[in-house]
Design goal:
This is Insulinase family protein. It holds the Pfam family Peptidase_M16. Keywords: Hydrolase, Metal-binding, Metalloprotease, Protease, Signal, Zinc. By secondary structure, the protein is α+β, with helices and mostly antiparallel strands. It is globular and about 80 Å long. It is built from 31 helices and 23 strands. β1 and β2 form a beta hairpin. The two termini are about 50 Å apart. α4 packs parallel to α9. It has four domains: about 230 residues, Metalloenzyme, LuxS/M16 peptidase-like (Cytochrome Bc1 Complex, Chain A, domain 1), CATH 3.30.830; about 210 residues, Cytochrome Bc1 Complex, Chain A, domain 1; about 230 residues, Metalloenzyme, LuxS/M16 peptidase-like (Cytochrome Bc1 Complex, Chain A, domain 1, 2-Layer Sandwich); about 180 residues, Metalloenzyme, LuxS/M16 peptidase-like (Cytochrome Bc1 Complex, Chain A, domain 1, 2-Layer Sandwich). A seven-stranded mixed sheet has the order 12-13-14-18-15-17-16, with helices on both faces. A six-stranded mixed sheet has the order 1-2-6-3-5-4, with helices on both faces. Strands 7-11-8-10-9 form a five-stranded mixed sheet, sandwiched between helices.
């Protein structure tokens, strides 16, 4: 595995002597000078950065460079268990003190107060904390201080938490989790990583000695393995002093235990993992070529960046080739991809993955490996390299232009990567300049990329992972079958790929007739309205929240409510997206593969939508790509590409997936619950193995043309870094050229399905690998859409979250979490509250009764005053956070124009006025008065 790393470094360093005026590959990349970085005498590292996006908010993290890999056999699962205990009592925040305090300032458990345990490191985060006063900053740092060294780990609390952890294990033990375990065993064969389970065995979680958890904490949670990260609207120098004062009090570890040095053995012969499971939805084969990781000291140099660029170029070119194959009707596989990745800090790899129809894994894998071998033998060509280069430079350019709008949580990840992996943290503007210089001056070349890749696809250190459904009639390939593929391809005759340059424009813009702007006026919420001669209205709000983002949404009334029942299933939004210009559909005369080449280097998504009440096109782009995005939007109306042969490719992939999803318990539950709550309405069918048989490209085309051939009455909402004067001529050209007849559509209320009335309770049994009961409860009733009702629904969601965490999760130990959501629908004039959770089948009846009792009790007695106050505070806290999002403002104006509903004005005043116990009781009582309760309990087959 060392050979590839040595070649990477040698290939990169050689050209350095020819470009002395640039950043030499052996010189370090400049660190972001706006970051305060330091290390205390006790070994603790800290990173601090001021960022006012959003204002008066900050993220506080403590990252411990320790994970499940440090566990002893007796500590199996305890790194993750410890994460839970950090929220169950510390020196300065006994009991549930951390959660209680954070909720009192508007933070929400799970959303703003959370943690994550990995194999190699553990992170604790306080996200989007309102730093409106100095005391909140002090308390947030004190919480991190306690996480670091002063978690109580009370034995009684440990025993109480066992049930929660076991329920989390039950919920997480899906087919995907079991695939992950099988992959770890193969990729890391011969090392401790191969058996690192992360969440632990059921036996150990039930029976471990609490002292083992204390021992793990005392051994590994120590300053020299920890970093404090604070990013947000804070005085960085002041926070540094606070960190120095507070965290210097934590003593350095005496005789600190060294981490074991773990390596992954090389393998001369391929390691082949054959894994089948009844709940796996799709057959896949992955091939990995293992290599040693790039050392941290190299990552921070110019050569580290060049290595990354070479890998990114390779991945982009290979994925273009694979897409060219799988979008063809006669493709040997359903989908495929390739990339460089690091499964752990001790291992790098290049991998290719292919997804096939059941029973066709071997020919699919052979086709994938043939493409890897083709690239290894002959390399890539200049046209491919130019497109990939353009794409990557554009990515770095977009990152630079959007740097000032980065959110705290994005920035934090840079410092975690630096602390754990040695990745450099640099300014995006500086990095873009270096990248451009390297490309412009020949430090990253096609020859270099080809040379590196030819040494990546080797005959050794290969791991092959086969994952497939376990079902009757499906034969499982053998290990030898896959090895035979390798031998066959290596001995086969393969020809190099021909060049495929594409230079044609999307359309003849000179031929567009256009329509002039006849009106321009100011609207609510800072929008400007432009009215075209053809009647199309455009609402524009320039913002600088994200300087690299412009959102475009067109909308007409109608959507699915205008379609006949036989067309509906062919317009499921997942299909509409896959059939779109940003999916498999292409546009005009250009098939998808050609279009993607034409759009290389452009940052655009463009997807039509067909929802219950409305239809239109949603696009996301950047200022420099705005015109191209408008061209694609225009063509989505005037020249959609609906070619049956091409669109049958993604349709067949969906059919293949759905055939196996019928064995996935979570999918079965969603389908059955949807059927129950909508009373089996034919207008609310969702895709499954039965309904997909009624899907056809022809019906999709019929529906699409019915809805999109006429843009009369169209409303357009554009929000982002857009200049109105620049937009005006483009709007006149593209929106002004859309076909209009004057026949304005509106949605048909009688065709909009609502929640079913009355009471219904169903129990069903399903075969499943991990026995669990899944519960779904829906309460619904008549209610008008209003700002007050919307706010009360949001407050109820918060209140139920807190109620169920206390009762069902903490007191009963009955579930990992209850999902509760309340809302009011404008279309159906209905209020709904949906409650869903997993649990132990033996506890199901008791917990269903408790969940209903807790909800219904609010109607009679209200809830705890503390919960009401916390819900009110959380809503007020979240309101300004939403306002730095382009999508928020697009939604506000959309609601106002389409429904006449103002969700913005007087929001805080309404929260303060209406969120109280009396109104919460009335809100729930009104829902219950309708008498509509739908309940589904899905049990494992006995």
């Amino acid at each position: 595995m060392k050979k590839l790393l040595s070649l990477l470094i040698l290939t990169v360093v050689c050209p350095a002597f020819m470009f002395g005026q640039l950043l030499s590959p052996v010189e370090p990349l400049q660190k972001d000078s706006t970051v305060i970085y330091g290390k205390l005498d006790n070994g603790l590292t800290y990173y601090i950065k001021h960022n006012d996006k959003p204002a008066q908010r900050a993220d506080f993290y403590i990252v411990t460079n320790v994970g499940a890999i440090q566990e002893t056999p007796a500590q199996d699962g305890l790194a993750h268990f410890l994460e839970h205990m950090c929220l169950n009592g510390t020196k300065n925040f006994p009991g549930k003190g951390i959660i209680s305090y954070m909720e009192s300032i508007g933070a929400k458990f799970g959303e703003n107060i959370n943690a994550s345990t990995g194999v190699e490191h553990t992170s604790y985060m306080l996200n989007n904390i309102p730093v409106t006063r100095e005391g909140i900053i002090d308390s947030s740092l004190l919480i991190l201080h306690d996480y670091s060294a002063y978690v109580t780990n009370d034995f009684d609390e440990i025993d109480k938490e066992r049930g929660v952890i076991l329920e989390e294990k039950r919920t997480r033990n899906t087919a995907q989790w079991r695939i992950r375990d099988a992959a770890m065993a193969a990729l890391f064969k011969g090392s401790k990583y191969a058996t690192c389970s992360l969440i632990g065995s059921e036996e150990n979680l039930k029976n471990f000695d609490p002292q083992e958890l204390v021992n793990f904490y005392k051994t590994w949670y120590r300053p020299d393995l920890q970093a404090i990260i604070v990013v947000g609207d804070v005085d960085a120098k002041s926070v540094e002093k606070k960190i120095q004062t507070l965290f210097s009090q934590i003593p350095a570890a005496e005789n600190p235990k060294a981490k074991d040095i773990i390596t992954v053995p090389s393998n001369e012969k391929p390691i082949v993992s054959i894994f089948t499971d009844k709940e796996i939805p799709q057959t896949s084969v992955e091939i990995y070529f293992k290599s040693e990781p790039v050392p941290a000291e190299i990552k921070g140099l110019g050569m580290g960046l060049i290595i990354d660029l070479s890998k990114d170029l390779t991945s982009a070119m290979l994925n273009e080739r694979l897409q060219d194959i799988y979008t063809k009707p006669d493709a040997p596989f359903l989908a495929a991809g390739a990339a460089f990745m690091s499964p752990a800090t001790i291992l790098d790899s290049f991998y290719g993955a292919v997804y096939s129809k059941d029973g066709e894994a071997i020919p699919a894998f052979e086709a994938l490996y043939t493409e890897l071998e083709r690239a290894r033998r002959f390399g890539f060509n200049a046209d491919e390299f130019d497109r990939a280069k353009t794409q990557i430079i554009s990515l770095y350019e977009n990152n630079a232009s959007g740097e000032s709008g980065r959110r705290n949580e994005e920035i934090v990840q840079d410092y975690i990567s630096n602390f754990i992996e040695g990745e450099p943290y640099t300014s995006a503007t500086y990095l873009y300049k270096v990248v451009k210089d390297y490309f412009d001056n020949g430090l990253v070349t096609l020859d270099m990329v080809n040379q590196i890749f030819s040494s990546t696809v080797t005959d050794t250190n290969i791991v092959i992972l086969y994952n497939a459904p376990q079902k009757e009639g499906l034969a499982t390939p053998t290990e030898q079958d896959f090895i035979d593929v390798l031998d066959r391809v290596k001995a086969s005759d393969i020809t190099p790929l021909a060049s495929s340059e594409v230079m044609e424009p999307l359309l003849d813009t000179a031929a567009l007739k256009g329509a002039a702007i006849t009106e321009s006026d100011s609207q609510k919420f800072g929008f400007t309205r432009l009215v075209l001669e053809n009647g199309i209205e455009i609402y524009v709000k320039p913002t600088t929240f994200k300087e690299d983002e412009i959102l475009i949404k067109t909308q007409a009334g109608g959507g699915k409510s205008l379609l006949s029942e036989d067309l509906l299933i062919s317009c499921d939004q997942s299909l509409v997206s896959m059939f779109s210009v940003s999916g498999y559909g292409g546009i005009s005369k250009f098939p998808a593969t050609t279009l993607q080449k034409m759009l290389s280097g452009k940052n655009i998504t463009c997807v039509p939508y067909i929802r219950q009440l409305a239809h239109g096109v949603e696009a996301t782009t950047t200022p420099k790509d705005l015109e191209t995005a408008l061209q694609l939007t225009y063509l989505s109306y005037t020249a959609p590409r609906i070619e049956e042969q091409e669109l049958n490719v993604p349709l067949n992939m969906i059919k293949s997936l759905l055939a196996n999803y019928s064995a996935d318990p979570n999918f079965i539950f969603r389908q059955k619950f949807n059927t129950l709550i909508y009373g089996n309405s034919p207008r609310m069918q969702t895709l499954d193995s039965a309904t997909v048989k009624n899907v056809s490209v022809a019906k999709y085309g019929e529906a699409y043309r019915q809805l999109f051939s006429d843009a009369s009455g169209l409303k357009v909402y554009i929000v982002g870094n857009v200049n109105i004067d620049t937009l005006k001529p483009l709007a006149e050209k593209y929106f002004g050229s859309l076909p209009v007849s004057g026949n304005i559509t509106a949605y048909r209320l009688e065709n909009i399905p609502g929640y079913a009335e009355g009471k219904a309770a169903e129990e069903t049994e399903v075969n499943m690998s991990t026995p669990k009961t899944t519960v779904g409860i829906l309460y619904s009733g008549k209610m008008e859409k209003s700002l007050e009702n919307d706010i009360l629904a949001s407050a109820l969601t918060h209140i139920l979250d807190m109620t169920y965490v206390k009762s069902i999760r903490e007191e009963e130990g009955g579930t990992y979490g209850v999902s509760a959501m309340s809302g009011v629908s404008e279309a159906t004039r209905q209020v709904s509250t949906v409650i869903v959770f997993d649990t132990d089948p033996a506890k199901a009846d008791e917990l269903v009764a408790l969940a209903k009792k807790e909800y219904e009790a609010i109607a009679e007695n209200g809830t705890e005053e503390e919960y009401v106050e916390k819900a009110r505070t959380a809503l007020i806290k979240a309101f300004p956070e939403k306002q730095i999002s382009n999508s928020y403002w697009q939604g506000v104006m959309n609601d106002y124009i389409f429904y006449g509903y103002d969700s913005y004005s007087n929001y805080v005043e309404t929260v303060e006025k209406c969120v109280n116990n009396k109104n919460m009781a009335k809100f729930v009582k009104k829902t219950l008065k309708s008498g509509n309760v739908r309940e589904l309990v899905m049990n494992p087959t006995k």
